[in-house]
Amino acid sequence: MEITPVATFEPPYYTVVFTSVKKPEAYGDGGYPEAAQLMNDLAKDVDGYLGHENATTPGGLSITVGYFRDEDAIRAWRDNLDHQRVRKQGRAEWYEAYSCHVAKVERSYGFRRDAGSH
């Protein structure tokens, strides 16, 4: 599987940055991996979802960046009942701390080396 960033989109669009630190017990059998996969799958069903990226530092800081066409798509994601349930469970069981930032993207560009380039 090739690792590549999410493609750029024609601005404006929106990004939701979810940064978290999980409790040590979240890495066990507490259901976190299954819930994270469910959230990834549900987000893809939102009209206006453009993509997302996840990264985790060696120290345990996790960052998920979701890309959405507009604020209506973000609201639809926020108001999804399964998403609400998992957020509540996350606060109760999995997270030490988290922050969520919503921003409007006004400029977007990228680079990708061609497969044959050196």
Features:
alpha+beta; Alpha-Beta Plaits; single chain; 31% strand; globular; 3 helices
Element-level helix/strand string = EHEEHHE
Number of domains: 1
Second rung of CATH, namely the architecture: 2-Layer Sandwich
CATH topology: Alpha-Beta Plaits
Strand content: 25-35%
Average pLDDT, to the nearest integer?
A: 90
Shape: globular
Question: C-alpha Rg, in Å?
Answer: 16 Å
How are strands sequenced across the largest beta sheet?
2-3-1-4
Provide a count of the helices: 3
Percent helix, as a range, is 25-40%
Largest sheet: 4 strands, antiparallel
CATH class term = Alpha Beta
E-strand count:
4
Tell me what you see in this structure.
With 118 residues, the chain is of the alpha+beta class. It has a single domain (13-105), classed as Alpha-Beta Plaits, CATH 3.30.70.100. The protein is built from three helices and four strands, in the order E-H-E-E-H-H-E. A four-stranded antiparallel β-sheet has the order 2-3-1-4. The radius of gyration is 16 Å and the shape is globular. The two termini are 21 Å apart. The mean pLDDT is 90.
State the gist of this model:
It comes from Streptomyces polyasparticus. With 118 residues, the protein is of the alpha+beta class.
Walk me through the topology.
Elements: E1 13-22, H1 32-44, E2 49-56, E3 61-68, H2 71-79, H3 81-94, E4 95-105
Antiparallel strand pairs: 1-3, 1-4, 2-3
